[in-house]
Write a structure and sequence with these properties.
mainly alpha
């Protein structure tokens, strides 16, 4: 009897998270297709925005922010607190994805967060991405679509926030495997390690970012389960 109750409980949890699970399945099924590529590029843009935003918050100056079709990107900045700037891309994206998922029980907050993401994407793109490139239009139209969905209706905002939240978390996990785990010395972790004059620190730094980001995701999902009970 206890075993059956446990199965029923797990089944209810899965049912409550059916939209998140559906988004995850669709994303994985079409991960390497042109259908998902624009969303993957948008996540890379968010990654760079976190670098740029952290540079500004810590007293630095942003010179340029770019997102490339091969899903690479770079943010050129002067000043600021470099260790925090380096970590902000990976950890910030995972944190934002976790927040979008967690606020599923707070529809108005989720809607406001989605609107804020859209406006920040447009603003940062206008200020720091050269006009005319594909990444410029990605930031402008991507941000505009998110803002419009947040304003248009609660249903549209929930759909957009759920999808973007799942994509941010999935891409963070994808980055952890392909970049940080396989060749961390070539990533932000490697750049920070060289900045400190100790290239061998690249993997410990990467691992700490992975654990921190996974912690955000786990806490968001656990809190969401508790709120939906």
């Amino acid at each position: 009897m206890r075993f059956l109750k446990r199965i029923v409980y797990v089944g209810r949890i899965f049912w409550r998270f059916r939209y998140y699970l559906l988004c995850t399945i669709v994303a994985y099924a079409f991960w390497n297709t042109p259908l998902i590529l624009p969303f993957r590029l948008f996540v890379v843009l968010v990654h760079e925005i976190f670098h740029a935003g952290t540079a500004l918050i810590t007293g630095g100056q942003v010179l340029e922010m770019r997102t490339n079709l091969n899903e690479s990107g770079h943010t050129l900045a002067q000043g600021g607190f470099f260790p925090l700037i380096s970590a902000a891309g990976y950890v910030g994206s995972a944190l934002l994805g976790s927040l979008l998922i967690y606020t599923g029980t707070l529809p108005q907050v989720q809607r406001l967060l989605l609107l804020l993401i859209g406006m920040v994407c447009m603003g940062m793109t206008i200020w720091y991405t050269p006009v005319g490139g594909g990444d410029f239009y990605l930031g402008i139209f991507g941000g505009l679509i998110l803002a419009a969905m947040a304003i248009k209706s609660q249903r549209a905002a929930v759909a957009a926030a759920t999808w973007i939240g799942v994509m941010l978390c999935l891409y963070s996990l994808y980055d952890f495997y392909t970049d940080l785990w396989c060749h961390a010395e070539l990533t932000d972790a490697g750049i920070l390690a060289r900045y400190w004059g100790a290239p061998l620190l690249a993997y410990p730094i990467a691992l700490s970012w992975v654990l921190l980001s996974l912690g955000f995701m786990y806490r968001a999902m656990r809190a969401l389960v508790r709120k939906k009970k």
